[in-house]
TrEMBL record:
Species annotation: Leersia perrieri
Protein name according to UniProt: non-specific serine/threonine protein kinase
Membrane-spanning ranges: none
GO molecular function (one): protein serine/threonine kinase activity
Secretion signal, residue range per the UniProt entry: 1-23
Recorded coiled-coil stretches: none
Length: 377
């Protein structure tokens, strides 16, 4: 009895080993393949043929599916990246950047790729519909979510805050409306937040200062209202802050200038009032400061130093009074200076940073003279 079942056991053992070996080769799971094919079915792209390699019954991991990569240890799809403005050799064989158009919507099937760490569907211009809300609950490994340059509408899922590994959230250049969910402030790994050029309303979440890893916060060209939360000043890694072209009111947070790595600050075209914090102009790393088209008042703090280096210093179209600060003439570099359309008065200081500037930089003030405006009488 025992001897007759031995060959059968061996056969079973071999079958098991063979199955394990093929799993090692990380062929894609049937579930992932089905999910990808459902995603494909909801989208259409003709010009570049990005989906031509996605075949029924094919191996989505080892089979050269364009834009799909798997984790070799799990054999599960980890990365789905399709860019409509691609410079890679596959999509742009002639070395010219390829420009594609994709329409359709992002299927909920994406939420079945539950080991996904990167989801990029960028610059396809015509992808519409909403952001599947199941993303937040079903894709706990998601690190990068980039859907810019489409026609995505609806709101940012309110549960977005559950994506605790998220480092990049880029939804720029879409038609997204509603408020920025408060839960965004719990994304403790978030480094890059880009929601530029959408239709977002309401306030910037007050708790944004708790995103301690945040280095770029780009929220310009929306319809955000209320004040700039004071807590942005506690973002110690913040390098780029763009809140331009919204409907923000109130003052510039006093401690914003203390952010040590702040490189660019765009607050233009809002309704910001109050004074320019001296700490901001004293900040050595700040290379771009644009406060144009607001209601900023008072004198420009006279705190520039030999380490001040401004590619852009645009304070035009405000209610600034007093003189052009003397210390600005000691700045290491001022590339583009615009102080026009304010209420400044007095003589423009002489010095190298001013040598290349023309009258337009100082036009329409109360009583400026000297430099490119001609002699003071
Ligand atoms: C400053 O911002 C305003 C409003 O966003 C914009 O119109 C202007 O061109 C910017 N200035 C510079 C020098 O980029």
């Amino acid at each position: 009895m025992a001897s007759s079942s031995a060959p059968l056991l061996l056969l079973l053992l071999f079958a098991t080993l063979a199955a394990l070996a093929s799993a090692d080769a990380a062929a894609c799971s049937a579930g992932d393949r089905d999910a990808l094919l459902s995603i494909r079915a909801a989208l259409s792209e003709a010009r570049l043929g990005v989906f031509s390699s996605w075949k029924q019954g094919g191996d989505c991991c080892g089979g050269g599916w364009y834009g799909v990569s798997c984790d070799p240890s799990t054999g599960r799809v980890a990365d789905l990246t399709l860019r409509g403005e691609a410079e890679d050799a596959v999509m742009a064989p002639a070395g010219r950047p390829a420009s594609g158009v994709m329409s359709g919507y992002i299927s909920d099937a994406v939420c079945r790729l539950d080991r996904l760490s990167t989801l990029v569907l960028a610059d396809w211009k015509q992808i519409s519909g909403g952001i599947p809300s199941c993303l937040a609950s079903d894709l706990p490994y998601l690190r990068i979510l980039e859907l810019p340059g489409n026609r995505i509408s609806g709101e940012i899922p309110s549960s977005i805050g559950t994506l605790s590994r998220l480092t990049v959230l880029n939804l720029a250049d879409n038609l997204i409306s509603g408020e920025i969910p408060n839960s965004i402030t719990t994304l403790s790994s978030l480094k890059h937040l880009d929601l530029t050029n959408n239709q977002l309303t309401g306030r910037i979440p007050a708790g944004i200062g708790s995103l301690s890893m945040l280095s770029r916060a780009l929220l310009g060209r929306n319809k955000l209202s209320g004040e700039i939360p004071a807590s942005v000043g506690s973002l110690t890694r913040l390098a780029d802050l763009d809140l331009a072209e919204n409907q923000l009111i109130g003052g510039i947070p006093e401690n914003l200038g203390d952010a040590h790595v702040l490189t660019s600050l765009y607050l233009g075209s809002n309704r910001i009032s109050g004074r320019i914090p001296a700490s901001l102009l004293r900040n050595k790393g700040l290379g771009i400061l644009n406060l144009s088209r607001n209601a900023v008042e008072g004198a420009i703090p006279d705190v520039f130093t030999g380490e001040s280096y401004f590619m852009v210093l645009d304070l035009s179209r405000n209610r600034l009074t007093g003189a052009v600060p003397r210390s600005l003439s000691s700045a290491a570099y001022v590339g583009h200076l615009d102080l026009s359309h304010n209420r400044l008065c007095g003589s423009i200081p002489a010095g190298p940073p001013f040598d290349h500037l023309d009258a337009a930089s100082f036009a329409s003030n109360s009583c400026l003279c000297g430099g490119p405006l001609g002699k003071c009488t």
